[in-house]
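Incident log, structure service

09:12 report received: a user says their structure output differs between two submissions of the same chain.
09:20 pulled the input from the user's history:
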Amino acid sequence: MSKAKENKYIYLIHFFMLVAIVVAFCFLPAPAPITAYGMRVLGVFVAMIYGWTFIDLLIPSLFGALALAMVGYGTVDQVFLAMFANTTVFMMLFGVLCFAAIEQTGAGDWMVAKLLGSKLAKKSPIFIIEIFLFIFWIGQQTGLSWFLYFALLPLMYKMLLKCGYEKGDKFNALFMCGCLMMTQVSMSLFSFRGWGLMTAGTATALTGVVIESSSYMLLTILLSLLIMVTYPIFMKLCGCDFSKLATVDVEDAFGGAIKTDGKLTKVQSVAMISAGVFIVLVTAASLLANTVPIMGWLNTTVGCLGMMIALWLFVVLFKVDGQPVLNMRKAAGSFPWDMLMLIAVALLVSSALTAAETGVSAFVAGILGPIFAGTHPLVFLMAIGAITILLTNFSNNIACCFVMLNIICSMYNNGFPVNITAAAFVISVSSVFVAYLTPAASMPGALMHASEANTSATLYKMVPLQMIYGVIVLAILIVPYVLITG
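09:34 re-ran on a clean worker, output below:
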């Protein structure tokens, strides 16, 4: 049998397995309180995980969308409308397009080449890793998460491949997941804003205990610093090779984007300046929304999505030497359509899986509550953190967050002496900062699986190690905090 025929048969076998998994879950008994519908949705989710691992990204995603309609979510029309009614999907679509000029003009390569060719990079590649970790942390604080996801991450993919790392290398997976980890920790910094407000506010509402903002913020800052210091060590222990960052021949790898005088070309300058104006506006709108009326209007009425569309229009319409800054034909040809479909269906299936109609969240809560009722509060807290990290890699992180908060607060209200400030911090962080094992875990998780520098198989191997690392760094902070404060 020829190699081509053998591959064809293997491909068909894997596709048959997709169908078989969905059919099997339709007939499996549903343990209460999971409903029959919940089991069918779970089957679609498991089938897509299998397909993303052994086939590719696009085929299992399309199959999952059709299968979701078949198991009772709604009509095919309703499924696809729900997939693309998600703001995150539109942010991803316009985010990639509006920043495509940075890549297409070579401006991104110019920036990376300057960084890798610096004396700091040659001195130690760890400095490069630390720089990116900090950029992702501070970028989240200044409202630039979408720039990080759709402009900086694609540059990192290409940087790693040009440095000599092959697709699926463990270094690629851990490096990029570490940067995203810093972004997610940064989300939790303030107990009175954003994600931190949601978790801390919910804990306060359920227990009547006011979260200590100073302690909460201190824990988040200390965790950020701890990750900055220890994450390169963790990568080294996992067998990552740092040397390629330091030994890359910059002229050979990035020479096409660098003029002999080392300066940006006109079109590269326009691409960089327009992106810079976008960054300034998004940051100012986020920070000054409550004090400057026009910034409040930009932040609420226009929003980040509107500013992305404005940037996209500019780079398409503005011409340098008779040519647009962004050639849309080339941009459309290189657009990651499989990633768009993956994110759309993964977010929908994750949301469907943790909806009240499936009973999955209630099933998890019903199991965990009685198990930890008689444990030491510190053991309980760390176990809940570890379980949250695990569950958020398979389910919607918001649903997971609320399930865990309800378990903790219910036990507290019934006399269990858990530290509510520590609990709010643990749930806030653990429900987001290591969520890359499956594409359905989070939007950043989907980006990792769809990136040209990673493979799903590598992420399935490396992310569990990152999950263990996450539990350890949490324990390093929480154990002494609870022992000291009670």
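09:41 both user submissions now match this output. Likely a transient worker issue. Closing.
09:42 reviewer note: The two ends are 68 Å apart (CA to CA). The first helix runs from residue 3 to 27.
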